[in-house]
Design goal:
alpha/beta; Spore Coat Polysaccharide Biosynthesis Protein SpsA, Chain A; 13 strands; 40% helix; 252 residues; 7 helices; 2 domains
């Protein structure tokens, strides 16, 4: 017998995506929308489509996912973001895995659509995310509040072949807003680790970052789109190290 599976979607003001996301995972035994204070029609739409809705105060992503894990009695959990879609091929692969699971958690690759373009290189593929978890054997590291890290009770994770579809950035404004949050977080982490930039670091790191994305990660295979993304991410690298430099200046 295949164990019970809950598809869990973390939400906050996701009316743009929530209906299509739920429709893509309705094959699961339970669909749980775990909401953190939406003020748009997210919860209303989710209820219309038949999902169970739970409300939880947001502190950080690790805490939110850990709280979601105890909000279901399903043996397995499939975390899906609202801007992601599960394909029929991925559905079948998950159901086959659950017939005889060999691991306590599984990484799933993603096809990222950025500004409407499928991005196969430039660092956005395979973009593995550990999203299929044996609920009683996994939790999120509370010390890592962004770019969450799953801790399994035992053993190594498995890897699925079929990707999630991820519509993660539909505009440059959305891209900038999210990258700015990452800059703030990553600069503070570097500061806490004692990483002190040289006077030239904010200028040399972006060059290294561009080389890494455009050449090492073959961003050139994404064409002009890959060039644009490589330049954008190099700019944010510059901003990160400028912020890190300011943090050290304030501490002196």
């Amino acid at each position: 017998m295949i164990p019970k599976l809950a598809a869990i979607i973390l939400t906050r003001n996701e009316e743009r995506h929530i209906r299509e996301c739920i429709e893509s995972v309705k094959w699961a035994d339970e669909v749980l929308v775990f909401d953190s204070g939406s003020t748009d029609r997210t919860c209303e739409i989710a209820a219309e489509v038949g999902a169970r809705i739970a409300h939880n105060e947001f502190k950080n992503y690790a805490q939110q996912r850990n709280d979601a894990l105890i909000c279901t009695d399903a043996e397995w959990v499939f975390f899906v973001d609202a801007d992601e879609r599960c394909t029929p091929e991925l559905q079948q692969e998950i159901l086959q895995i659950l017939e005889n699971p060999q691991h306590q958690g599984y990484h799933i690759p993603r096809h990222n659509y950025i500004f409407g373009n499928l991005t196969r290189y430039t660092g956005w593929y395979p973009d593995y995310q550990m999203r299929l978890l044996q609920r009683s054997k996994a939790h999120y590291d509370p010390a890592v509040q962004v770019h969450e890290v799953v801790i399994l009770e035992a053993g190594e994770p498995g890897y699925l072949k079929n990707p999630l579809i991820h519509y993660n950035y539909h505009s440059i404004a959305q891209f900038h807003e999210k990258q700015q949050r990452y800059i703030d977080y990553d600069a503070k982490i570097l500061y806490q680790k004692g990483v002190q930039p040289k006077i030239y670091t904010p200028y040399t790191q972006p060059i290294r970052h561009f080389k890494w994305r455009f050449f090492d990660l073959q961003g050139y295979k994404d064409g002009w789109h890959g060039l644009y993304l490589s330049l954008l991410m190099s700019w944010y690298e510059y901003q990160k190290y400028k912020l890190l430099k300011r943090l050290w200046e304030k501490s002196q």
